[in-house]
Write a structure and sequence with these properties.
This protein is of the alpha+beta class. Helix content is 51%, strand content 14%.
Length: 642
């Protein structure tokens, strides 16, 4: 996720094409949107010495994101390629990758501004800001808020009228980068807007957003109320109605809400902005029929949705079928829906009928279609297992787990193990389950089935503990070696936050302990999915005074963040020490791009590991965290990495 060292010259409106970058040059000098650009690149960074011809991809921004696959050829010791551009684009960034590595150009990346009338197009530097904040992380860069702020300022210098549309985003970034000066800057914007006068509903929306940035919720509420008085039938009414619709979980109430929204979207000019998404809102009703076990209503709702795209329909059907199999409710209907999903997605994988999405490469699109079929085949296999149709389900489970996922998906391995244990000879499936365990791709369910197979083979469980320990040892040693390669030696940001009980925790006072900092939010699905495993990890180390877990709640959008987090923790009965990052300052200081993200900080105050996302296995999570904690302790004691 990084990218660097590009065109310092291009940052100036009149830069030359072959700017002073020896490893990346291009012509024409000031390419316009729609031009064909010729690039010349010499491998560097992490691609130095790699003999494999790098894959080159250009990502055009402007009207969404559009991928350009760039065939490279060798010419005079360099790599050259041709990049066609779209007339709607204003900025292109590049990925040069090989062997799962990127050349990030010293974290500056490779990019080109597209021109119009002798200067970068309007919006080009806004795209550059998004690149610095977000897109660059997908091609090897670290997020760079300072560069993103400068890009906004350059955009406003070149195109002053861009400020009206992008000013709020700019001020948010200004606050992030310049914490001391930010409040005064926002206050000035508020004063300027009030002097100009609030004439439209949009003006009131801007003002309340500014008060939000200034952390003045009472003032924001005052002007929100004034807006509602001045524009009693404004767009805010439709927005509130949509928010209420999205939150409602009662089927009858949600049906009535949708009927009201549909009627007004077709007749009221303040509601017409909802009209393009009415079909999507209609689909939002469908899962509630499954929850209510209203099967006739479900069929009618599916028919009413009138989904023309069979692949989109397959996604919906798979989701519904998966929910239905969880409690074995109406398994025949679940099998019917899932059967449509697997047949449709397999045909689409082998011979797609739709157009490749602009934001994907051909390779990515092929992989996406294949993995989608694999996921749906796993669903169908599990439904067949629930129905007792073991022989029918096994081929789908095998294709999903062993062929497509190559044994690397723990959940799909578990589905295969359940069916294989019912169909195959013990000697056959026992060997496959052993492989899952040795590769570290087995959960407790697979291990239980393996134990049953062991007992069947040996007529007792004598020696099983040594047997499973030996199998897991190989996976453990492999994990240790891989984690040693990723160990860090970076000074952890300092912070002090209050927990749900109002107690202040200062990270500097925890020096001497190994600290696990887990950034999460109540709306984050992977965060929530990881919490049962995290609870197991907390329980494992609760007697160790030198290990401390901190769960930093961040990026929440609710009014009462403390109550929101507290209600979630209490409802789920988690024993976590939750800290409230209400201002999103700590998550920014740690340069977190997505959640869940965990940092393992050694006793010496050094970040030793950064773990992003959740693999889906509680056992794997606990095992990996345990190894990270042990390695962090060892690194801190020795004062160096491995």
């Amino acid at each position: 996720m990084y990218i660097k060292n590009v065109l310092l010259g291009v940052l100036i409106a009149g830069s030359t094409a072959s700017y002073a970058q020896s490893n990346f040059t291009y012509t024409p000098e000031q390419p316009k949107a729609g031009d064909t650009i010729h690039i010349s690149y010499q491998q560097g960074g992490d691609l130095t010495g790699i003999q494999l011809l790098p894959e080159a991809i250009g990502y055009q921004l402007g009207a969404g994101q559009k991928v350009v696959e760039i065939p490279l050829r060798r010419s005079n010791g360099r790599l050259v390629g041709v990049v066609p551009t779209d007339t709607a684009s204003n900025f292109i960034y590049f990925a040069f990758t090989a062997d799962k590595k990127f050349d990030n150009n010293f974290n500056k990346g490779f990019y080109i501004h597209l021109y119009k009338d002798g200067k970068p197009k309007q919006g080009s530097y806004v795209s550059k800001s998004f690149y610095d904040q977000y897109y660059g992380t997908t091609v090897g860069l670290e997020a760079n808020n300072e560069a993103a702020l400068k890009a906004y300022e350059k955009e406003f210098e070149l195109h002053p009228d861009s400020k009206k549309v992008n000013n709020l985003a700019y001020l948010r970034m200004f606050n992030t980068v310049n914490k001391a000066e930010g409040p005064a800057r926002v206050q000035k914007e508020i004063e300027d807007l009030l002097k100009t006068g609030l004439k439209t509903e949009a003006d009131y929306n801007t003002l309340t957003s500014l008060y939000g940035l200034a952390k003045l919720p009472q003032q924001a509420k005052i002007f929100t109320d004034l807006k509602k008085e001045k524009f009693p039938t404004g767009q805010w009414v439709a927005s509130d109605a949509l928010n209420n619709f999205n939150r409602e979980q009662d089927l009858a109430k949600k049906e009535k809400m949708l009927a009201d929204i549909t009627a007004k979207a077709n007749t009221d000019s303040n509601w017409t902005f909802l009209k393009p998404n009415l079909a999507f809102y209609k689909e939002r009703l469908i899962p509630l029929y499954v929850k209510a076990k209203d099967w006739d209503g479900l069929k009618k709702a599916i028919d009413a949705a009138d989904i023309k795209d069979n692949v989109a329909k397959a996604r919906l059907y798979n989701s519904l079928a998966w929910e239905m199999q969880k409690d074995s409710s109406n398994l025949p209907l679940a099998a019917e829906l899932s059967g449509f999903a697997v047949n449709t997605t397999k045909a689409d994988w082998k011979k797609p009928t739709g157009k490749k999405p602009d934001y994907l490469t051909t390779k990515q699109w092929d992989e996406q279609r294949k993995s989608t079929y694999g996921m749906f085949a796993d669903s169908y296999a599990m439904i067949q297992y629930r129905m007792g149709n073991y022989k029918k389900g096994l081929p789908y489970a095998k294709e999903a787990a062993l062929v497509i996922a190559e044994g690397k998906n723990v959940d799909e391995n578990a589905t295969y193990a359940l069916l294989a244990s019912k169909v195959l000879p013990v000697a056959k499936y026992k060997k496959e389950l052993e492989t899952f365990v040795k590769d570290g791709k087995a959960n407790s369910e697979i291990k239980d089935l393996l134990k049953e197979a062991y007992v069947k083979t040996n007529k007792s469980d004598a020696g099983y503990d040594d047997y499973i320990t030996a199998l897991q040892r190989e996976s453990y040693l492999k994990m240790v070696e891989e984690l040693k390669k990723s160990i860090l030696n970076e000074t952890a940001p300092t912070f002090a936050l209050f927990n749900l009980d109002g107690k202040k925790t200062d990270i500097t006072e925890l020096k001497g302990k190994t600290v696990i900092v887990d950034f999460w939010a109540t709306w984050c699905g992977p965060c929530i999915a990881s919490f049962p495993g995290m609870q197991k990890a907390v329980d494992k180390y609760k007697a160790d005074p030198n290990v401390k877990f901190l769960f930093v709640n961040t990026w929440e959008q609710v009014d009462d963040k403390k109550k929101n987090a507290s209600d979630f923790i209490e409802k789920n009965k988690y024993g976590f020490d939750v800290l409230l990052d209400n201002e999103n300052k700590v998550v920014t200081d740690f340069k977190v791009d997505g959640i869940p993200t965990k940092f393992i900080i050694g006793a010496d105050g050094k970040v030793r590991f950064k773990s992003v996302g959740f693999s889906g296995s509680d056992d794997k999570l606990v095992e990996e965290l345990s190894v990270m904690i042990d390695l962090a302790k060892e690194a801190s004691a020795s004062g160096k990495a491995f």
